[in-house]
Write a structure and sequence with these properties.
Length: 331
C-alpha cells in the first residue's frame, strides 16, 4: 500500500480511509510519543536561620543558694578617755605646747605667756628661757611630801613661771622613751609615779595608797591621782600602747608596763600564773594587774626594771676593778 504508514513507535502499518475519497485510506497523523509525566517540582526550601532564644526569665533562672553571712567582728574599741593630740601639739590656758622627736627621745616644749605657770616633776626640766622663774616646794605639806617620797617620786614639785614676757621650758624623762600630751577635760586618771612628767598648774595631783599588793607587784606603795582640766604630760619607757576595754572585759597587764588608766577602773593584783607562785616565778612575770572594763589603759612597751636587770651583769661590782668584760690582750 502506497499510503500505508509505518509507525516506528508501535511497529504497525496504519491505513486511513478518508470520507472524501472512498476506498482511499489515509494514514492517521502520527502523534509524537507522550512525554513521561514529571512530578511537580518541589519548592526549594531555604535554610532557616536558628532563632535566637529569649533569655530565661529571672523566675526560670536557678539562683544559687545564698551563703551564710560572715561572722561579724566585735565592735571597734573606740571611745577612749585619753584625748591624744594626733599632731603632738596643742594649747591651754595661757600656753601652747608641742612634742618633738617623738619616739625614743621625745622632748616636750611648753611656751608660756607672760606670768603663766606650769608644774613639773622635779628633775624633768631640760632647758628654759632666761626669764623663767623656777620655784620648788613640798606640795601637800610634809605629809604629802612624805607620801610622794615613799611612792618613788621627788618630795618637791617644780613650778615654772614666765616673768616679764613669754617664756619657753622643755621637759624630758630620765629614761629613753616617748612623751604623750593628754588634754584632760574634768577627768580623773591614775598615773604611775615614774610616768608623770608635767601638767597644767590647775590640775590636782594627789598621791594615793596602792596597798601592800601594789608594793609587792613592783608599782610602789603609791600611785598618782590626776584630776581636773588641762594638759597632762606623761612619759613611757618605749612606746605607749592604748587598750580600750569593753564593759565586762578583763585584761591583764604586767605591773612594770603600766603608765596610766582611768580613775574609775577596778583592778586586782595577782600572780601571773593562776596555778601557783612557783610557776609565776619561773615564768619571770611575777605580779600582774587584772583590769575590769569598761575603760582605757596606757601601757608602755618596755619595762625599765627588766632593762636594768639585763644591764646588771655588765656593771662593776664592789671589790672588782673592771666591768663585765675581761679581755686579755697579752703582754
Amino acid at each position: 500500500m502506497a499510503d500505508a504508514k509505518f509507525c516506528g513507535s508501535c511497529g504497525f502499518t496504519i491505513l486511513v480511509q478518508t470520507p472524501n475519497a472512498p476506498g482511499v485510506i489515509r494514514e492517521a497523523p502520527v502523534q509524537p510519543p507522550a512525554q513521561p509525566v514529571q512530578p511537580p517540582a518541589q519548592p526549594v526550601q531555604q535554610p532557616t536561620q536558628p532563632q535566637a532564644q529569649a533569655p530565661p526569665s529571672p523566675a526560670q533562672q536557678q539562683v544559687p543558694p545564698t551563703p551564710p553571712p560572715p561572722a561579724q567582728p566585735p565592735p571597734p574599741r573606740t571611745g577612749g578617755a585619753f584625748n591624744f593630740d594626733t599632731d603632738n601639739r596643742g594649747q591651754g590656758r595661757g600656753y601652747t605646747w608641742e612634742i618633738q622627736y617623738a619616739g625614743a627621745f621625745a622632748l616636750a616644749i611648753v611656751n608660756l605667756q607672760p606670768e603663766q605657770q606650769i608644774a613639773a616633776e622635779a628633775g624633768a626640766m631640760v632647758s628654759m628661757s632666761a626669764n623663767m622663774d623656777l620655784h620648788s616646794e613640798m606640795k601637800g605639806g610634809i605629809f604629802g611630801a612624805l607620801k610622794r617620797a615613799v611612792g618613788g617620786e621627788s618630795a618637791f614639785v617644780s613650778t615654772f613661771t614666765a616673768k616679764g614676757g613669754p617664756g619657753e621650758v622643755c621637759f624630758a624623762p630620765g629614761a629613753p622613751g616617748d612623751v604623750a600630751g593628754i588634754e584632760m577635760n574634768n577627768q580623773t586618771f591614775m598615773v604611775q609615779s615614774s610616768s608623770y612628767l608635767a601638767g597644767d598648774i590647775n590640775l590636782g595631783v594627789d598621791t594615793k595608797f596602792g596597798g601592800a599588793k601594789s608594793w609587792l607587784g613592783g608599782e610602789g606603795l603609791f600611785v598618782l591621782q590626776i584630776t581636773g582640766t588641762g594638759l597632762l604630760l606623761v612619759s613611757s619607757f618605749g612606746a605607749i600602747h592604748r587598750r580600750v576595754l569593753r564593759p565586762g572585759e578583763q585584761y591583764v597587764v604586767d605591773t612594770g608596763h603600766l603608765v596610766a588608766w582611768e580613775g574609775h577602773m577596778q583592778y586586782n593584783l595577782r600572780k601571773a600564773a593562776k596555778s601557783g607562785y612557783f610557776r609565776s616565778f619561773l615564768s619571770g612575770e611575777g605580779m600582774v594587774a587584772e583590769f575590769n572594763g569598761p575603760g582605757e589603759i596606757l601601757i608602755q612597751t618596755r619595762n625599765l626594771a627588766a632593762f636594768a636587770g639585763l644591764l646588771k651583769p655588765f656593771f662593776p661590782t664592789q671589790g672588782s676593778s673592771g666591768g663585765g668584760f675581761n679581755l686579755n690582750l697579752g703582754g
